[in-house]
Amino acid sequence: MRTVDWTALRPRDEEPAGEGLRERKKRLLRRQLSDTATEMFMERGFDAVRVAEIAAACGVSEKTVFNYFPTKESLVLDMGEATSNSLRTALADPDLSPVDAALKILSTELADITSWLSAQNDPTEAKATLLRFGMLIRSTPSLRAYQRDTADQQVAVAAEALARRTGTRPDDPEPQIAATALLALWPIQFRALRTHLNRTGTFEELHDAVSADVRRAAHLIETGLNSLAPRRRG
């Protein structure tokens, strides 16, 4: 069943310094569960696969799966906490503006994806697989809802970090709108990736094209809506 090396899409899952055997086994099992679930969902559809089947394929109990992942949706959308942690760290850096902090995270995540693509034996098939992965999420209501909930949680994380920077409260209008605007850069990157995936020749060109779209959106956040003028055509 496994045709794509999903583990290469998780470069953050490197072996921590001083990791013991028990911790390593837990980390690798978590990755195996997510990768196996992703393959099964893409092959048969999210709703057609039971968690018990994923557990059986990995040789563990269904209870064990839920010990690692609180919901079925989190088996496939499992990077939200990593992004939240990155937001906390980057937005706390006084040497980075909020927009630059978001761009730094997005650039790393985009580099992870293009590195994953270039590492596959068949890059053309890998592109198609990545598009199918996006279609799986967009076509599954529960995954879309989970993704929205995760985005809301990340807005709250960003608002708290921005409030700390500015001496305001997280529920004040300024950190709320700023956090919402910053997190809107993530769907911009996903859409740009989908748009440019089969329009660019090399993965370096793909990275540059997607980054350019994201930076255009980020520029609007920095300059404000007053800079949103009609584009001349022709």
From TrEMBL:
Q: Where is the HTH tetR-type domain?
A: 27-87
The record's region (Disordered) falls at 1-23
Q: Which molecular function terms from Gene Ontology are attached?
A: DNA-binding transcription factor activity; transcription cis-regulatory region binding
Q: InterPro entries given for it?
A: Homeodomain-like_sf, HTH-type_TetR-like_transc_reg, HTH_TetR, MftR_C
Q: Which Pfam families match?
A: TetR_C_14, TetR_N
Q: Keyword set for this entry? A: DNA-binding, Transcription, Transcription regulation
- Carries keyword Nucleotidyltransferase? no
Which residue ranges hold the DNA-binding region?
50-69
**Ranges in a coiled coil:** none
Which domain of life, per UniProt? Bacteria
Q: Which PROSITE patterns match?
A: HTH_TETR_2
Question: Record's SUPFAM superfamilies?
Answer: Homeodomain-like
TM spans (from-to):
none
Q: Does the keyword NADP apply?
A: no
Which PANTHER family does the record match to this protein? HTH-TYPE TRANSCRIPTIONAL REGULATOR BETI (PTHR30055:SF234), HTH-TYPE TRANSCRIPTIONAL REGULATOR RUTR (PTHR30055)
UniProt name for this protein: TetR family transcriptional regulator
